[in-house]
Amino acid sequence: MDQIKIGKFIQEKRKLQNLTQQDLAEKLLITDRAVSKWECGKSLPDASIMLELCSILEISVNELLTGEDLDMNDYNKNAELNLIRITKQKEESDKRLLLSEYVLAIITILFLLAALGIVIFADMPLWAKITIGIVGFIQFVIAATVCFRIEQKAGYYECKHCHNKFVPTFKQVFFAPHMGRKRYMKCPNCGKKSYCKKTIIEKD
Q1: Count of C-beta atoms within a 10 Å radius of residue 6
Q2: CA atoms in the 13 A half-sphere facing the CB of 23
Q3: Of the residues 61, 110, 144, 186, which has the fewest C-beta atoms closer than 10 A?
Q4: What secondary structure letter does DSSP report for 184?
Q5: Alpha-carbon Rg of the chain, whole angstroms?
């Protein structure tokens, strides 16, 4: 998607509604800086406010993502293209999230090992060792929670039996036995349990 083109389109439609950046921001409960970044082509509106933004600007989501007014002949074609672009963007975003999970896990383990090394081998008061141990444990719990959340949200899990792809709940991910990127979970489609593998693509 052409962010510069979309930004100029948002600016044009905002002005047609006689709205300032501040006016639009207040309607969407965001900052005017966010609106400015859209209009400069530095970012795109978040999906959570896209429908409301389109309603305010009196345009369709496809027109917003295309950055221009569409007639009915172009509408279906652009709808398909925009769906493909959004799908690709999600796949790329999921890949980056899963990579960040690996990095976070490695850093967390190194930090925890360093904390344990200090507690065991360093010559310091007992209260200092306890403090370092507590800080290390808290950091581990926070990082683990973030990793589990990434594992849940990024991509999908594919059932070994029916090949249905689904997004599990946080509870399922947290308690499921796992081997690498596979987790033993119940498929919501066929109801069978198996080691479901992580995949980025929703449909083959």
Answers
A1: 22
A2: 10
A3: 110
A4: E
A5: 23
Contact 83, 96 (CB under 8 A): no
pLDDT of the chain along its 204 residues, tens only?
Answer: 688 999 999 999 999 999 999 999 999 999 999 999 999 999 888 878 888 999 999 998 888 888 888 776 666 666 667 766 777 777 888 888 889 988 999 999 999 899 889 888 888 898 998 999 899 899 999 999 999 999 888 889 999 999 999 999 999 999 999 888 899 999 999 999 999 999 987 765
Token pair 């599990």 in the structure block, residue = 168
Question: Whole-angstrom Cα distance, residue 114 to residue 136?
Answer: 9
Contact 6, 43 (CB under 8 A): no
Is the CATH number 1.10.260.40 carried by domain 3-70? yes
d(CA 192, CA 79): 36
Q: What gap in Å lies between CA 202 and CA 204, rounded to an integer?
A: 7
pTM, 2 dp: 0.59
Left (φ > 0), alpha (ψ -120 to 50) or beta: where does 63 sit?
alpha
